[in-house]
């Protein structure tokens, strides 16, 4: 039985790690881009960011003072047991958020949308969001947090099958260009693309693609891999670098996630994770030990499962009565 | 690694900045600040400019730098503040308040994220002899945090919360910032945006707009969202 206190402590640590420690895959991705960047202002911005990350690690202070909209992704092993069940996990995550907001400190970002009241702890109605997934045959619980902003750099559009791959490229460019100028999207960033599903799952898939896959990771479908690489190159060919200054550093990597969708539609979402790419994961084992990492390992084959084993009945169904 | 920092001009200003200091700032140069910087954003603007509350301090004699930001801060039980860092918020949305605000406070340097529309520089900042500096990368919270030496004062903390309260920070080598607008109202972001625009038609070549248009949508990607 995994204790609530263990979950709360692990969630607190991932909040702190996400805020302060840049994921190593992202840092090396950025360093690789600096080597290629010809724009002097864009290169200056990237160098300053590297210095900022060094300062954050040395001082143990957040890389960015804007906490974004912190959320949790929780993957529960099917054999895992947590004290007080799912409600216990949820309560531990909310407590950890409030504690991390005070202790790290994180900026209290969450306010009521109309009354603008602030609990000063990043906890409120429907906040932080918690998304759940499951893993067969496992007895651990993975707690991932990502801190991503929500004001710019993310968009959704209902495309149709007739819009095709060109339509996907067009909307991708539209989004990067619209929000990349003046650096509103806080680029360069890992860009996530959600394709398919219903409107809301399309948004979720795109955000997961941006925030829960590491730089260099590829979709297992080779044709989608090809599209990922094509979109990455396309984004870096806009001529825009960090903060919208002239340059080539727009997309550190592009990840696509798909969901089977309505036969008449092709919904698409685009999400730019920010220049701080804040993510951290803790695996809590059944014996209460905790291991930390920066790869959420969210997209397992089970999560991308495609269909069910099912056969058409040999005999027609009787319809009597 | 390209060594860009060597090619950019750098300035270090003591605050309040003098008109001469401000006149020397060139687009695209890098700035560090020493002295007092205050924060004000929608909560503060509404309170003073719409609800008619008086300024809580004689800003014109203390600081002429308005930072559009809020801190990652915590209040400890003994009444002291811990500041982790600050990060800017998008400035274009404050345009409607800025002219009155500059009148009331004597502010000459505005710092934030993304700049303001070029027209606003010409119609709002230029008549007040004010310039705009942008934060760098928008995420340099740790570097800026290092530059904050102490909290001189904080106003309306209970009413507005940590993020919207007005903070007065004592800063030292606070930065880096990049000059986005000068006293003539030229905009660095606009200049770079135009250079990007020149390549766009080739990039969009052959990519048709989607079947379904959205209300009010434009196909002209040269237009900016702000």
UniProtKB/TrEMBL annotation, chain A:
NCBIfam families: ttdA_fumA_fumB (TIGR00722). Residues 9-282 form the Fe-S hydro-lyase tartrate dehydratase alpha-type catalytic domain. GO terms for molecular function: 4 iron, 4 sulfur cluster binding; lyase activity; metal ion binding. This is Fumarate hydratase. Belongs to the class-I fumarase family. InterPro entries: Class-I_Fumarase/Tartrate_DH, Fe-S_hydro-lyase_TtdA-typ_cat. PANTHER family: FUMARATE HYDRATASE-RELATED, L(+)-TARTRATE DEHYDRATASE SUBUNIT ALPHA-RELATED. It comes from Kaustia mangrovi. The keyword Lyase applies. Keywords: 4Fe-4S, Iron, Iron-sulfur, Lyase, Metal-binding. It comes from the Bacteria.
Automatic annotation (TrEMBL), chain B:
Pfam families: Fumerase_C. GO terms for molecular function: hydro-lyase activity. Residues 9-191 form the Fe-S hydro-lyase tartrate dehydratase beta-type catalytic domain. Keywords: Lyase. InterPro entries: Fe-S_hydro-lyase_TtdB-typ_cat, Fe-S_hydroAse_TtdB_cat_sf. Belongs to the class-I fumarase family. PANTHER family: L(+)-TARTRATE DEHYDRATASE SUBUNIT BETA, L(+)-TARTRATE DEHYDRATASE SUBUNIT BETA-RELATED. This is Fumarate hydratase C-terminal domain-containing protein.
């Amino acid at each position: 039985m995994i204790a609530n206190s263990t979950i709360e402590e692990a969630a607190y640590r991932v909040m702190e790690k996400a805020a302060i420690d840049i994921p190593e895959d992202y840092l090396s991705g950025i360093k690789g881009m600096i080597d290629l960047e010809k724009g002097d202002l864009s290169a200056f911005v990237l160098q300053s960011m590297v210095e900022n990350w060094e300062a954050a690690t040395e001082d143990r202070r957040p890389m960015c003072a804007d906490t974004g909209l912190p959320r949790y992704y929780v993957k529960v092993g099917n054999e895992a047991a947590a004290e007080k069940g799912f409600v216990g996990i949820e309560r531990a995550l909310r407590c950890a958020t409030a504690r991390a907001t005070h202790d790290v400190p994180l900026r209290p970002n969450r306010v009521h949308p109309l009354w603008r009241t602030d609990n000063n702890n990043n906890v409120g109605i429907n906040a932080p969001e918690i998304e759940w997934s499951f893993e067969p045959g496992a007895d651990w619980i993975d707690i991932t947090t990502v801190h991503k902003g929500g004001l710019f750099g993310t968009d959704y559009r209902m495309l149709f099958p007739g819009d095709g791959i060109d339509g996907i490229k067009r909307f991708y460019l539209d989004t990067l260009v619209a929000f990349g100028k003046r650096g509103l999207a806080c680029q360069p960033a890992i860009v996530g693309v959600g394709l398919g599903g219903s409107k809301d799952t399309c948004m979720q898939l795109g955000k997961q693609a941006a925030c829960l896959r590491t730089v260099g990771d590829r979709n297992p479908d080779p044709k989608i891999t090809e599209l990922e690489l094509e979109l990455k190159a396309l984004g870096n060919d806009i001529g825009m670098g960090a903060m919208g200054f002239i340059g080539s550093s727009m997309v550190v990597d592009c990840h696509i996630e798909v969901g089977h969708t309505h036969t008449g539609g092709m919904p698409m979402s685009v999400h730019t994770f920010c220049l701080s790419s804040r993510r951290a994961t803790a695996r809590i084992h059944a014996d209460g030990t905790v291991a930390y990492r920066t790869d959420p390992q969210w997209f397992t084959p089970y999560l991308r499962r495609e269909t069910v084993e099912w056969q058409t009945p040999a005999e027609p169904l009787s319809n009597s009565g | 690694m390209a060594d860009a920092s060597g090619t950019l001009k750098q300035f270090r200003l003591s605050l309040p900045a003098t008109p001469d200091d401000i006149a020397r700032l060139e687009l695209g140069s890098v700035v560090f600040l020493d002295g007092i910087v205050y924060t004000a954003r929608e909560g503060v603007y509404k309170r003073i400019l719409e609800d008619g509350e008086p300024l809580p301090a004689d800003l014109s004699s203390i600081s002429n730098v308005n930072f559009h930001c809020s801190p990652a801060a915590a209040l400890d039980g003994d009444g002291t503040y811990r500041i982790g860092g600050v990060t800017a918020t998008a400035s274009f949305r404050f345009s409607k308040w800025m002219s009155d605000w500059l009148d009331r406070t004597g502010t000459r340097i505005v710092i934030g994220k993304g700049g303001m529309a070029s027209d606003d520089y010409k119609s709002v900042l230029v008549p007040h002899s004010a310039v705009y500096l942008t934060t760098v990368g928008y995420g340099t919270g740790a570097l800026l945090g290092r530059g904050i030496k102490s909290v001189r004062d904080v106003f309306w903390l209970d009413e507005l919360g940590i993020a919207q309260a007005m903070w007065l920070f004592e800063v030292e080598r606070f930065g880096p910032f990049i000059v986005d607008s000068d006293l003539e109202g030229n905009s660095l972001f606009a200049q770079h945006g135009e250079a990007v625009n020149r390549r766009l038609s080739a990039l969009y070549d052959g990519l048709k707009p989607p079947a379904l248009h959205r209300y009010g949508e434009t196909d002209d990607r040269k237009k900016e969202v702000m």
